[in-house]
Automatic annotation (TrEMBL):
The gene is tusB. This is Sulfurtransferase complex subunit TusB. NCBIfam families: sulf_tusB_dsrH. It holds the Pfam family DsrH. InterPro entries: DsrEFH-like (IPR027396), Sulphur_relay_TusB/DsrH (IPR007215). It comes from Bowmanella denitrificans. Gene3D superfamilies: DsrEFH-like.
Length: 96
């Protein structure tokens, strides 16, 4: 089980669809830094892929720092403490 940390905005150079294709079903995905903008991706094909996955997390503090307040229900908001717990729960951590 791998926890994937996405840091770049999916509206720039990051191909979030490609990242999702490389993930196994039991892997987790944490949106952090500019990747939190992914919650604004309704209508994008990769957004539908996100909705179909389990284990999608978003760092609350990064959302707040970017003025984002609404988070879709399929994404679990986590704080730094829960972030640390997630890194210990998964076997590996990969940063994109």
């Amino acid at each position: 089980m791998i926890l994937h940390l996405l840091r770049s905005s999916p509206f720039t150079t990051l191909d979030i669809g490609q990242s999702l294709a490389l993930m196994d079903q039991d892997d987790g995905l944490l949106l952090m830094q500019d990747a939190v903008y992914a919650i604004q991706g309704q209508g994008q094909s990769w957004f539908e892929q996100l909705q179909q996955r389990q284990g999608i997390y978003i760092l609350k503090e990064d959302m707040q720092a970017r003025g984002l307040s609404h988070c879709p229900g399929f994404i679990e908001q986590v704080d730094y403490s829960k972030f640390v717990t997630l890194t210990l729960t998964f076997d590996q951590v990969v940063t994109w």
